Structures are given as structure tokens and as C-alpha cells.
Amino acid sequence: MVIIFFCVNMNTNGEVHELKFKKIITKRGGEMMPKGIHTIELNVPIEKVWHFVSDMDRWAPLVPGYIEHKKLNGKQSTWKFESDIGIMKKLIHMKIDIKEWTKPSQVRFDLTGINEKFSGEGYFQAEKLSETKTKMVGCLDITAKGMMAPMVNPALKTIVPKTTKELSEAIAAKIGGNDTLTSND
Q1: Are 125 and 136 spatial neighbours (Cβ–Cβ below 8 Å)?
Q2: pLDDT tens-digit profile of 70-121?
Q3: CA torsion through residues 89, 94, 98, 103, sign
Q4: Do residues 121 and 141 lie in contact, with contact meaning Cβ atoms separated by under 8 Å?
Q5: pLDDT at 17
Q6: Does a cis peptide bond (omega within 30 degrees of 0) precede residue 150?
Q7: Spatial contact of 113 and 90, defined as CB atoms under 8 Å apart
Q8: By the 8 A CB rule, do 183 and 40 touch?
Q9: Cα–Cα distance measured from residue 159 to residue 135, given in angstroms and rounded to the nearest whole number
């Protein structure tokens, strides 16, 4: 995608005396877009992880800055939370569409901004390491859209990995309490 910014300076008579433009090229799905992946190993069976992540009512309140969520149906909900985006706090209202429930290992979802222009996706994956150990992976990939995207996406590069880590660790704490083995970014 190519974004072009124009800056026009006029004198008091309305005549243009300076015209500047800047071209920004962005990539979708490459390293330039905000994404966070966090892996945690738990001393719990995979079924316990699945029991928790298979119901969004259990993990929605664990999103950092959580305010509320409402289920629209079994696969859709809306969430409200407050987020620090750079130097400002923003109320974020988004729609979650569950696109895949694969028992006992995966929940995949799409994210769509309601009050802000952004979209994204995420997932929770669980992998059975033994009868009593499970690896859980949380992933969020969120991209701002519209005219503010060139300013917001750089801030999201820091915010999205941090949010992914905080959410994944909060879920792990609820599932396994103090039984968390390892955690990495």
C-alpha cells in the first residue's frame, strides 16, 4: 500500500508558496505490521487449557484495560477496553468473530474495529507435551487503517506484543495458577 501526505502552506492572500509531500510504502503480513506471539508451558493437561479458552466469557475479562464484552451469538462478541496508544489513552470497541474452534487445540478469531479503523486476527493454540504438560501459544496481529495508520502502527508494534504477553500470562495464571513452567516472548 502507498500512502501520500500533502502539506500546503499558503500566504495571507491564499497563494500556495510551499507544497510538500511524503510517500510511505507499507507491507501487509510482513515485519512492518504489529504482531505479538507469546508461548507458555503449563503443568496442566491440554483438556484444562481447552476448557478455559473454548469459552470467550472466561478470557475476555483478562484483556488488559478490559471494560466490558457482550456476546452477540456463539461465535461473535463485542469488546470494550482502554488502551495506551503512544502518549494517549483510547477507548477501543471491537468486534470478535470466532472463525475456528478445533478441540482441544485451537481457537482462531478475527478482530474488527467498531470505533477505530483497524483489523486483525489472533489465536490460542495448545499442544500436548505430556499427560500433565501443555504448551499454550497466544497470538495477536492488529493493523490500524485509514489516515492515522502511519502514526498508530509504529505504536502498535510495541503495544501488540505487550498485550499478547499480558493476556497469555493472565490466561495461564487462571488455568494453572502458580504451575506455569516457562514463558517466553
Answers
A1: yes
A2: 999 989 999 999 987 767 788 999 999 999 999 999 999 999 999 989 999 9
A3: positive
A4: yes
A5: 37
A6: no
A7: no
A8: yes
A9: 23
- pLDDT score for 32: 52
- Closest to 128 in 3D by CA, of 101, 106, 96: 106
Q: Give pLDDT, residue 83.
A: 85
Q: Is 65 exposed, middle or buried (0-12, 13-18, 19+ CB in 10 A)?
A: middle
Element (H, E) at 9: strand 2-10
Q: What is the DSSP string of 36-80?
A: EEEEEEESS-HHHHHHHHT-HHHHGGGSTTEEEEEEEETTEEEEE
| Residue of 178, 34, 52 whose CA lies nearest to 126 | 52
Q: Please, which residues bridge with residue 24 across strands?
A: 3
Which positions of the chain have pLDDT values less than 50? 1-11, 14-31, 177-178, 180-182
| End-to-end CA, the chain | 29
As a residue count, the chain comes to 185
The C-alpha atoms of residue 166 and residue 161 are separated, in whole angstroms, by 9
